[in-house]
Amino acid sequence: MKTSGTPSSASNQKKDRSRPDGPVIVGCVFAVVAIVLTLVGLGRANNLSARNVLLAVVLCGGIWGLVSWAIATAVVQVEEDVASRDDKDA
User: Fold this and answer.
1) Residue 27 phi, psi (nearest 5)
2) Which of 23, 30, 31, 89 is a plausible cystine mate for 72, CB 3.0–4.6 Å?
3) Using one digit for the tens of pLDDT, what is the confidence trace for 3-35?
């Protein structure tokens, strides 16, 4: 039986899954900003219909969220690669 004060890997995985990663948060933030700006633009143009609101959510939010998530994921992976190279060099 384990007597050390460190939590088991199973409990670490459970903690990690309860909170979204950084890239997911970045993607959600950019998606919400894109949706809000699109809805403001539609409202100013007096063009708020159910179809336009649905397109704003799917197209603007989806595209901005997906692209920003992909960029943030790439940044995280590059930072991990650089950190692992620094560890090997030291």
Assistant:
1) -60, -40
2) 23
3) 555 555 455 555 567 888 899 999 999 999 999
